[in-house]
Specification:
This protein has helices at residues 19-35, 40-70, and strands at residues 71-73, 79-81. With 89 residues, the chain is mainly alpha-helical. The chain has a domain at 16-71: Orthogonal Bundle (Helix Hairpins), CATH 1.10.287.
Length: 89
């Protein structure tokens, strides 16, 4: 029988979370850090988890902002997404 260690083979699950789920988990981390008298090691682990979740939320919001900025009306008045031109930056 194979020996399964905690986290073995895990592929960055936070990046795959929808924004709402990542935000909810982040809120849970903050509540746990504020409410409990946690040992330093646990606080550091929670802080690290929270930092990763913040990054995921920021990336998802950035992606959404780019999509919104790319929306434009075509000649028929329909909304469409234009390709992002990164050469202007």
């Amino acid at each position: 029988m194979p020996n399964h260690t905690k986290g073995a083979g895990a592929i960055s699950p936070a990046k795959d979370l929808p924004f709402e789920a990542a935000l909810s988990k982040l809120e849970g981390v903050v509540e746990a850090m504020e409410a409990d008298d946690l040992p330093l090691e646990t606080l550091l682990a929670k802080y690290e988890e929270g930092a990763k979740l913040v990054k995921v939320c920021q990336e998802k919001l950035g992606e959404a902002e780019l999509k919104i900025q790319q929306l434009e009306k075509n000649a028929a008045g329909e909304m469409k997404v234009s390709p992002l031109d990164l050469s202007e930056e």
